[in-house]
Each structure stands twice: as structure tokens, then as C-alpha cells.
Amino acid sequence: MVTLKGITIYLRALEPEDLDFVFAIENNETIWEVSNTQTPYSRFLIMQYLENAHQDIHQAKQLRLAICKNDTLEPIGLIDLFDFDPKNHRAGIGIVIENKKNRNQGIGSEALSLLIKYAFNHLNLHQLFANIGSNNEASLKLFTTFGFQKIGTKKDWNFHQGKYTDEELFQLIHRKH
């Protein structure tokens, strides 16, 4: 699909072969803070999830795509639309690049750009939102670069490593020309 292909990366649907990759991300405790995960996922649950990944966003209320470099099928990250609300034309958006060596190379920016365009132009969404930990400087910078505006702070929202941290709520409204 040309819509989800950028200069250096493309976004694709999840495949059964992505089981090990998704399993590794969902069970990586260093990422749990940004994904609000509290318990590990079994291979069986992830296999069931992948078996249902063919569901349309209107059925599943979410869309999870693999981020891949143009020269490979192997995923390097995941990007999601979640809490899809067709009545109010909105969805949450989140992204994770699994390996630190692939971060700070513009991959997240390109993936976010592709998914924002897809959400607004193909899904006809009016707005996207993102929940970002106040200490997640990379994500704060990434989302504000695309025009997401901070609309609120959830004080002491997340409990991680013995302390409470704030979470920022960002929103991007599609202004049709």
C-alpha cells in the first residue's frame, strides 16, 4: 500500500511471523511504563491476538502496524491507533521503536507522519490523542513536532519504580482546508 510507505520505512499489517517480535515488545519491562502494561503476555495470548489482527479497525477498535525499513520485512517497531471512536471521529495513537540503535534516526517521525496522514485522509478522523509520560522527552518532542498540543496533565497518574509520575494528554485536531 503506497499510503503507508515512506522514504526509508513502511507500515504493514501484522503477520503470524511477527509473534516473536510482538512477544519481545509486550514483555519488555523497560517499555511497560510507556504502554501502561503491568503483567507479561503469554505467547498463546499474542498468537490469538495475531490470529485476529485481520479485523478491520471498525471491528477491533484498534489498528496495530509493524514499522519496517524499506529493505526488509523484519519489524523494528510498532505503531497503533487505539480507542478508535468512529462516532466522534477520534483515536489514540502510540508508537514504540524496539531497539535503541534504531531510535533518533527519524524512523519514529516518518512512521508517525504516515499514520497521521492515513488517520485523517483515509479513516476521516477529526482528531488524534496521545498520552505521554511527563518524563518521556523523546515522545514529547516527537508529538509536538507534528503539532500535537498539550491539553492537560494527569497528576501522579502512573506509579513506576516506587514513585508517581504525571502523564500529559496531547491532541491533534485535523483542520480541513
TrEMBL record:
PROSITE patterns named among the record's database cross-references: GNAT
Q: In this protein, which residues make up the domain named N-acetyltransferase?
A: 9-171
On the tree of life, the source organism's domain of life is Bacteria
Coiled coil feature spans: none
One GO MF term, please?
Answer: acyltransferase activity, transferring groups other than amino-acyl groups
InterPro entries membership: Acyl_CoA_acyltransferase, GNAT_dom
Q: What is this protein called?
A: N-acetyltransferase
- Give the originating organism: Flavobacterium humi
